[in-house]
Amino acid sequence: MDSTRYTRGQDALARIHGHIGEGVMNALGDIAPDFARLIIEFPYGDIYSRQGLTPKERQIATIASLVTLGNAPTELKAHIQGSLNVGCTREEIVEVIMQMAIYAGFPAAVNGLLVAKDVFAELDKVSRPQ
User: Fold this and answer.
1) CA–CA distance from 33 to each of 36, 38, 43 (Å)?
2) Is the CB of residue 93 less than 8 Å from the CB of residue 116?
C-alpha cells in the first residue's frame, strides 16, 4: 500500500464527506477491505486530490454524473451531502440536477431531485431540535 496515496485519500474523503465517508469505508472493510483501500487511494487519493478543479467543482461534476447514470442513489446522496460540505448551495445542487434532464432525461432528473429533497429534509431535521 502506498501510504502517501492512502493518507491523501483519507484527507480528501474527510474533507468532502466528514465522518460519514469513514463509516462507509469501515462497513466495506468487513466484506472487501482491499476495495475500501482502493476507493480511498484512487478516487480520493489520486483524483479528488488533483489540482485543476476546486472541491466544489468536482462535486458538481460528480452529482451530474451520478444523476446521468440514474442508478446510484446511495452515492448521489453521499455526494449531495459532500457538495454541501465543500460549499455548494442547495440551489446550485438543484440547478445541476435539473440541467441533467436535458442529457439524462426527465426520469433521471426527477429521481435526482427526490434524492436531494430527502438529503435536505434529513439535514433540516438534524438542524432543528425537536
Assistant:
1) 5, 9, 16
2) yes
In DSSP notation, 29-42 reads HHH-HHHHHHHIII
Reference 96, options 75, 121, 66; nearest CA is 66
pTM for the model stands at 0.89
pLDDT digits (tens, 9 = 90+) for 2-61: 689 999 999 999 999 988 777 778 888 889 999 999 999 999 999 999 999 999 999 999
Rounded CA gap, 45 and 30, in Å? 21
Q: How far apart are CA 36 and CA 29, in angstroms?
A: 6
Grid coordinates in use for 45? 487519493
Tell me the one-letter amino acid at 56: K
Q: How far apart are CA 16 and CA 78, in angstroms?
A: 9
Task: Supply 95's cell numbers.
Answer: 440547478
Per-residue pLDDT of 55-113, as tens digits, reads 999 999 999 999 999 999 999 999 999 999 999 999 999 999 999 999 999 999 999 99
**Which cell numbers in the block locate residue 86?**
465543500
